[in-house]
Design brief:
Elements (H helix, E strand, L loop, with lengths): L24 E5 L8 H14 L4 E5 L5 H5 L11 H5 L5 H4 L1 E2 L5 E4 L4 H8 L9 H6 L8 E5 L6 H9 L2 E7 L4 H18 L5 E8 L6 H13 L11 H5 L7 H4 L4 H16 L3 H9 L28
Parallel strand pairs: 1-5, 1-6, 2-4, 2-5, 6-7
Antiparallel strand pairs: 3-4
Helix pairs in contact: 1-12
């Protein structure tokens, strides 16, 4: 995996006397297939980071706005959205809305984002608008989670260009591997053309039903070719009910299997990835900023599993 992002692009404040600010880590939650749990993963992973006392920003990149409503930010309750940020009518900080989850903020989305794709189609910087709006203005955040729409269009391209790492939610169904192959090819193209530091953090198995033999067959096949997190998100009614109450599962029912699954996923990422928290701990020990690249975890660190690219 590449070195952590440069602190020059913004990050959480370090302690007084620290060599430089620790850098936030930007995750894009992406899969071109719909109904695989992208928004559920974005909302609950962001809430789990916040519950672990890491200030987190959730950015809703989907015109449906479900990630926004999933943390209690309903349409009509805010004036500015990601659309205003992308077209240059607002700064990122002006569009940030606090949620009832401590340490969790959101940049909401509306259906206007559909128009943004059309308005930006002829712009020279159309693929990097979100990166330019996001990366330099993340002071105070440890993590940023980008909820992508179920497509590989301009909005998802902007998210992949702005991100450091990609999380891929995957429902264990018949066409899962085919969709993964297309997504990995897209990520490779984005890495080559716009964002060389982009890496695949791993595949998250969602809506997992252990009673179904096909589920296990697909899971085994995916694990044979891609890095798959040990944390598995079960099919859980509480995860389905929570959005209708405008709450992440942690606030709706913290003891539910769904909420516990996302807590385990966040813990796995924190334990096995060189996240901003690891940077902060290094700086508290007085380490030199030049030692940052060594914060990268080895492939065997934590419960992380397999290489993100298809095996030969």
């Amino acid at each position: 995996m590449p070195s952590p992002p440069s602190p020059k692009e913004g990050g959480a404040p370090g302690k007084p006397g620290a060599a430089s600010k620790p850098s936030p880590v930007v995750f894009a939650v992406a899969n071109q297939k719909g109904g695989v749990g992208k928004t559920t993963t974005s909302v609950n992973l962001a809430a789990s980071f916040a519950a672990a006392e890491h200030r987190t920003l959730l950015v809703d990149c989907d015109p449906q706005g479900n990630a926004s409503s999933g943390v209690g930010v309903r349409r009509g309750s805010f004036e500015l959205s990601l659309y205003d940020v992308l077209i240059g009518q607002s700064t990122l900080k002006e569009a940030v809305v606090a949620t009832e989850v401590p340490l969790l903020d959101v940049v909401p989305a509306t259906q206007d984002l559909v128009a943004a794709e059309l308005e930006l189609v002829d712009a020279d910087d159309r693929a990097v608008r979100l990166r330019h709006a996001l990366r330099p203005h993340l002071d105070g955040y440890a993590f940023v989670v980008l909820d992508c729409p179920p497509s590989l269009g301009l909005l998802t391209l902007n998210a992949l260009t702005a991100a450091h790492r990609v999380l891929v939610p995957l429902q264990c169904e018949y066409y899962a591997l085919e969709g993964l192959t297309h997504l990995m090819a897209t990520i490779d193209r984005v890495r080559s053309a716009f964002n060389p530091e982009l890496t695949v953090e791993g595949v998250v198995l969602t809506m997992f039903d252990g009673r179904n033999s096909l589920t296990h067959q697909v899971a085994d096949e995916v694990k044979a070719h891609f890095r798959v997190f040990d944390a598995i998100i079960p099919r859980n009614v509480k995860l389905s009910e929570a959005p209708s109450h405008g709450k992440p599962a942690l606030l709706y029912d913290a003891q539910s299997k769904g909420a516990q699954g996302y807590l385990s996923l966040a813990r796995e990422i924190l334990d096995g990835a060189p996240a901003a928290a690891a940077d902060a701990k290094k700086r508290q020990r007085g380490d030199d900023a030049e030692a940052e690249p060594q914060a990268e975890a080895s492939p065997n660190t934590g419960a992380r599993a397999r290489d993100a690219r298809p095996r030969s």
